[in-house]
Design goal:
The complex is a heterodimer of chains A (264) and B (539). With 264 residues, chain A is α+β, with helices and mostly antiparallel strands. Chain A folds into 2 domains: 105 residues, Nuclear Transport Factor 2, Chain: A, CATH 3.10.450.50; 107 residues, Nuclear Transport Factor 2, Chain: A (Roll). In chain A, 31% of the residues lie in helices and 23% in strands. In chain A, strands 1, 2, 5, 6 and 7 form a 5-stranded antiparallel beta sheet that branches. Chain A is elongated, with a radius of gyration of 25 Å. The N and C termini of chain A lie far apart (67 Å). Chain B is of the alpha+beta class. In chain B, strands 3, 4, 5, 6, 10, 11 and 12 form a 7-stranded antiparallel beta sheet that branches. Chain B has a 5-stranded antiparallel beta sheet with strand order 1-2-9-8-7, with no helix packed on it. Chain B starts with 44 loop residues before the first strand and ends in a 67-residue tail after the last helix. Classes of the chains: A alpha+beta (264), B alpha+beta (539).
């Protein structure tokens, strides 16, 4: 290593000795190249619809660089490069398809398809969610805000109790494999080895109206496992007839509900 | 005086910042580094290590520690990974300082309820396997990897190694000792080593903290016990040191004499052993072979923790819930940066920022102008003065610049293989590994000509406190710790009269680390039962 090499680097760092104030532009002329990943230039489209379609099409391909090119200036202050944008998208269900529902000059409602599943990092991936996108006219065309509102499209509420009943019957029959087919996760949250607990027992199901999970151990564990969105999509069904009240919690998995926890 | 000198190949050893010389209320390495995160221990990074595996040289080991200063006797709710924290290991393999590969960890703790009665203890019998049925509290975790090819679910429902209550929980015969108990515990914990699809291994659980630092003395106005007679406030009284003696205040540097503040303390570790290639869980960029810096052999590592941005409190007294995007609340790359070099009003901001923004955020300026160095003439007036204390700034600290840009470990200044300046723990994977010695024999890493040690990554045995003390004080700078010979830092003869050569905390290794000979390397956590003997060494 030579002194010359070091001096070159020293010069590169010299301009970093002043601290920008909070909220100041992150980079200044002459600052060393922190190189936080690629920042594809904005590629505005003729309409908000075209911009959102381009963004979601890129996401469907897994091309976060191309979807980043559809972000407006405000979004780019939050996600300053494509890697940060990739990290944000990794917190959300992957796009497998989409259909534009309604469009106006200010917003676009899109039904977005996902592979159904539960994941500790992103929570629920519903088969579909309804997303409302907004954007801005910038750089000679339309660009998109980063984070749309999203509401999961859930299976019918009427399917909750039959799903719980099917799981319970399998458990009572000591058929662990059949019980697992009605579960979204294994092991279940809450009571350990719940399937074995019901084996050879017969518990009357209270076929009341399913509710969202109530404050208490069930909600704490479900939220801890799948984030607070679970308070919106999870349903709880009370079982009575055993030694103590039991609540079975289900999650929407595609077009049906599946058991994710049993709580005493 | 020391006569060591870095050898050609690693060029020289300097280090960034890292000196435990601040009157700020922080503790090295990062056990209580910043105001906000010090109140959130479960999300608090304490240390990060990265080194090429000396046993399997095709792998690199990354150790990310959290939850510092754990008391072994802390039942029934022993320290644990938090369900509401996303733990991350971030790897840069492009030289840009960006997060090219991110490993995310989410933990989930459940209470094993189907028991005759609910008991308020960690376990109801001996533990023979991770998440044994006798454990009331059981924890699993999931791993996700994000990289340029997308998001990958690496593993789920992986068992966390259990807490270590004591010899009844981990029986080892009729007359157990702490040593036999630790062996019994480790036979269970070893079952938590999990092979990963795509190559490599993972381990998560409590461990004995291997870091060693004289917290008690350093944070009493930056006193170094071996030379505390030189302090502005001389030895205020004697205390038995780790060698069993007392300090005269004029001890020769390197002779020991410190008191390890982490003796008897555990920590929680996430450990990854990943392939040095570009497939599956490999750490190299696509198309790179890792044979040289230009071939992508240098990776930069930092660990972090994130929480969701919104916490909603329940007025009915229920558990708060967290919502929204994940926001980074803690990070750690090079040791001792935030706690020592970042101004106290910037520490929380630093924790929330990415290394790729260190330059833009002004943090490199802090690193290149170490405030603690300015305190030396005041604290040690008979040793340091304005004339022998290095001034700050990039032009005056080429040693620190070289570390921040990877030059010290072989990176070129520009072109393929060059590294953007950032607080990343960089390791050149083309360099042959050298095992750290548990007796501290190669604790000074590159300062002893050891290319396998800090700052080429960081091994569990590297004495980063002493290295940082000496280097920040000018050990490698011509005209200060070296004679002015016309060459760059680390290339001139020693100037043994410079006081940087005398700086030491007086601790050469962690006496109770119990390091293992293979992955996961960190030793088992000390059991709560034996904490009844304060300061006792492992039996």
């Amino acid at each position: 290593m030579t002194l010359a090499v070091i001096v070159i680097s020293a010069a590169a760092c010299t301009s970093s000795n002043s601290r920008p104030s909070a909220g100041a532009a992150p980079r200044t002329a002459g600052a060393p190249p922190a190189q936080a990943g690629a920042t594809p230039a904005p590629t505005p489209k003729a309409s908000l619809t075209d911009a959102v379609v381009a963004l979601l099409s890129a996401e469907e391909r897994g091309d976060h660089g191309a979807s980043y090119a559809m972000l407006d200036d405000q979004a780019r202050t939050t996600y300053r490069d494509a890697i940060r944008w990739r990290d944000r998208r990794s917190e959300l269900p992957a796009v497998t398809g989409f259909h534009v529902q309604t469009a106006s000059s200010e917003s676009l409602v899109v039904t977005v398809d996902h592979k159904p599943g539960l994941d500790p990092f992103i929570g629920l991936s519903p088969a579909q969610d309804r997303q409302t996108w907004t954007g801005r006219q910038e750089h000679g065309g339309w660009l998109v805000d980063a984070d749309p509102t999203a509401d999961p499209v859930l299976p019918p509420e009427s399917a909750v109790v039959p799903s719980v009943t099917a799981w319970l019957k399998a458990a009572e029959s000591c058929d662990a494999a059949a019980a697992r087919s009605h579960q979204a996760v294994d092991p279940l949250l809450g009571t350990g080895n719940a399937t074995a607990q019901f084996c050879s027992q017969h518990v009357a199901v209270a076929a009341g109206t399913p509710s969202r999970v109530l404050p208490g151990l069930a909600s704490e564990q479900v939220v801890a496992a799948y984030n607070a969105d679970a308070l919106v999509w999870a349903r709880s069904v009370a079982l009575t007839g055993g030694a103590a009240p039991i609540n079975v919690v289900v999650a929407p998995m595609g077009t049906t509900w599946q058991v994710i926890g049993v709580f005493g | 005086m020391k006569t060591r000198k870095p050898k050609a190949g690693l060029a020289m050893a300097a280090t960034i910042g890292l000196l435990a010389l601040s009157a700020a209320p922080a503790r090295a390495s990062s056990h209580r580094s910043a105001p906000a995160i010090s109140q959130d221990p479960s999300a608090n990074n304490t240390d990060v290590y990265a080194f090429r595996d000396p046993v399997d040289q095709t792998k690199v080991d990354i150790v990310a520690n959290y939850i510092g200063l754990e008391q072994p006797a802390a039942g029934p709710n022993f320290a644990n990974f938090a369900d509401d924290v996303e733990y991350r290991v971030n790897i840069n393999n492009s030289g840009s300082a960006s997060d090219d590969i991110v490993y995310k960890f989410r933990f989930h703790t459940t209470y094993n309820q189907p028991l005759p009665f609910q008991v308020p203890v960690y376990n109801v019998g001996s533990i023979g396997t991770p998440n044994d049925p006798n454990q009331i509290i059981q924890t699993t975790y999931s791993i996700e990897r994000d990289d340029s090819s997308g998001k990958h679910n690496v593993a789920s429902n992986v068992a966390v190694a259990p807490a270590n209550p004591g010899p009844r929980s981990f029986p080892s015969g009729a007359s157990p000792t702490q040593a036999s108990e630790l062996a019994a515990y480790e036979s269970v914990a070893a079952q938590a080593i999990t092979a990963l699809p795509g190559g490599g291994k993972v381990f998560a659980g409590p461990r004995k903290d291997a870091f060693f630092v004289d917290l008690g003395s350093i944070f009493d106005l930056v006193a170094l016990r071996p030379i505390q007679g030189l302090h502005e406030i001389p030895n205020p009284g004697s205390i038995t040191n780790d060698n069993g003696g007392t300090n005269s205040g004029t001890a020769t540097a390197g002779s020991g004499g410190g008191v390890d503040g982490l003796l008897g303390k555990n920590v929680h570790s996430i450990e990854l052993q990943l392939p040095i290639d570009s497939t599956g869980n490999g750490v190299l960029a696509g198309g790179k072979g890792g044979t040289s810096p230009a071939d992508g052999s240098i990776i930069g590592v930092y660990a972090s923790a994130a929480r969701q941005r919104v916490r909603v409190l329940d007025t009915a007294g229920g558990t708060p819930r967290d919502e929204g995007r994940w926001v980074q609340v803690s990070r750690l790359g090079l040791p001792l940066i935030n706690e020592v070099l970042v101004p106290i009003d910037q520490k929380d901001r630093w924790n929330g920022s990415d290394p790729s923004d260190d330059a833009a955020n002004g943090f490199l300026g802090d690193i290149l102008d170490p405030i603690p160095i300015k305190l030396l003439p005041t604290l040690y007036p008979s040793a340091f003065n304005a004339g022998n204390t290095p001034p700050g700034g990039a032009a005056n600290r080429p040693d620190i610049v070289a570390l921040a840009t990877g030059l010290l470990i072989g990176a070129p200044a520009s072109g393929p293989g060059s590294q953007a300046p950032a607080d990343l723990l960089r390791v050149n994977l083309a360099t042959a590994p050298v095992a750290g010695r548990v007796d501290g024999g190669n604790r000074l890493g590159a300062l002893q000509g050891d290319t396998g040690g800090y700052p080429n990554g960081r091994r569990l045995t590297d004495d980063v406190v002493d290295i940082d003390l000496e280097v920040l004080a000018g050990l490698l700078l011509p005209g200060f710790g070296e004679t002015a010979c016309g060459s760059g830092p680390g290339a001139c003869p020693d100037n043994p009269g410079h006081p940087s050569h005398a700086l030491t905390q007086g601790i050469h290794n962690s006496a109770d680390a119990g390091l293992l000979g293979a992955f996961p390397y960190l030793g088992p956590p000390l059991p709560g039962y034996y904490q009844a003997q304060p300061g006792a060494q492992p039996g």
